Every structure is written in C-alpha cells, then in structure tokens.
Amino acid sequence: MDVENTIEGIRNRIGKARRAGGTIGLVPTMGALHAGHRTLMAAGRAGCDYLVVSIFVNPTQFGPGEDYQAYPRTPAEDLAACEDAGADVVFAPGVGQMYPTEPLTTVSVSKLTETLCGRRRPGHLDGVCTVVAKLFNIVEPDRAWFGAKDYQQSVVVRRMVRDLNFPVEIVVEPTVREPDGLAVSSRNAYLTPEQRRQAPELYAALRAAENMITERQPPAEEIVAAVRGHISGKVVEGEIEYIQVVDPETLEDVETTDRPVVVALAVRLGKARLIDNVRVG
Ligand code: AMP
Predict the structure, then answer these.
(1) What is the pLDDT of residues 7-47, one digit of tens each?
(2) Cα separation of 118 and 186, whole Å?
(3) What percentage of the chain carries pLDDT values higher than 90?
(4) Is residue 46 located within the same domain as residue 154?
(5) Looking at the annotation, which residues are catalytic?
(6) Statement to judge: residues 142 and 198 lie in one domain
(7) Atom 18 (ligand 1): residue with closest C-alpha?
C-alpha cells in the first residue's frame, strides 16, 4: 500500500492505474477509522480495481466552537486499517495541500441542506460538499462509498453529483452498529462510561418508531413524540437537537407514515453530538 500526501503524487499514481485499464474507487474519511469505515473499505475493495482511501480532517466542515481541534486523530492505526482492508493507496493531505490559499469557492446544495443537521450546523454541509467535490476532482473515481449513518450527507452528495455531472457512482452502505445497537462513530470516544451505557437507547427509540410505523402507520407527530419520550426517559443527560420524520429523497418533513420515510435524530450527550436514523418502508 502506498501513502501520498500531495495532490501531484496521488494524481500520478491514479493516472498509472487508469492507464493500466482499472476502475478507480474512493472511500473519503476523516480518519479515526472504525468498523463503519472498514465496511466502506471492504465494499470499495470489492467494487473497483484501484482503491483510494482519503484521510483528511476537513476544517471547513466544522463550525466555530465545534470539535475540529479535539477530533480524534489516529494516523498509525488508520494506515494499518487501510492496509488490512486492501487499499491500494491512502491519500492523506495536510490542510495546506488542500487549502493552500483561502478558498473563495464553495459548493453549496440548497433546500436539502436546510433541514436536519444542515439547519443546526450552518455551513457544515457546504464544507462537506466542497471537500468531496475537490476529492472527486483530484481522484476522479468511477465509484465512491458513503455511509447511511450520515443520511442527509449521502442525499446531498448524490444531488451534487447529479447537478454538477460528476462522472461518479455514489454507493451508500448501511450503518454499522455496536452489538448493543449504538451506531459506530469516531465521536463515541467522547462519551463517559455512563453516557456510553445510555447511548444505545437512541437506536432503541428509532427501532420502536420503526415498529410503530410498520404495524399501524401513525401520524409523524406521534412518532416524534414517542421517540422524544423514550429518549427523555432513558438518556437522562441527553439534549435532543432534533427528531424528524422526513421524505427519503426530498428530506422534507412528512405528516403521514403510510409511505417510505426516514426517522432521523441528533442528540447531544456530554461532549458528543450523536446522530442516527432508520429508513422505513
Ligand atoms: P467520517 O470519517 O466520520 O467523515 O465518515 C466517513 C464515511 O464513513 C462517511 O461516508 C460516513 O457516513 C461513514 N460512516 C461513519 N460511521 C459509519 C457507520 N457507523 N456505518 C457506516 N458508515 C459510517
């Protein structure tokens, strides 16, 4: 496995792989690699000839006061995980490589970003789209893999690709969970043992919502109230940021659940901001 820190270096390697006739795959990450990333890398390994994993903690997707500085960084373990997963090359640029001058250009998807996390983290999804667009221009992948845990991100990236005619296929893999149901996340490391014990109740609440919808399709507001009640009762230190029942494609709030929906939530628990979702129907 090779490691490249420069855009010129990664372009040279990818150019060679492409001239040899191979398809190029990209798994974009911010490092601190865990089982969720490993699933994306395994899918990537099976789905292309030359697999690029990018590791870049992207400053432009963190808001003021967010955890950019504190975000876990585990470079040695990450390279071992990429090697294990069979990546051909890791692209790990520094901030100066990705943003040598103050960027004056932003890729911004409207509407889809005005709800859920986008509404609570202004500029976050613009930062994501901009860095993903840059990575697509650098790597020129035929396919790229994303996780369903960041559901809104996957919808927004898909839309950016469609609107801007990026010649890349976006593949979304299901959320990987701990045995107790908690969605695996680099930010779970921020939880105290007691918070970690309560955190699986977020997914338990979503599962209960899923069962309600499957059994009797109640109004969306009943679902929101039930999820809120469950979390308020069982995640005592949790501060609910949002609980929404939305259309899987437009991400608009829905009133009824007799149709496919996504139930999504964000909860602050101590130093961690946890997100999760289930797609029903
Ligand atoms: P991150 O490093 O957190 O920016 O995530 C990189 C990619 O991994 C994104 O496409 C995430 O959606 C995906 N990802 C993060 N956590 C999980 C998980 N638990 N299951 C599946 N994919 C995940």
Answers:
(1) 999 999 999 999 999 999 999 999 999 999 999 999 999 99
(2) 20
(3) 100
(4) yes
(5) 37
(6) no
(7) 36
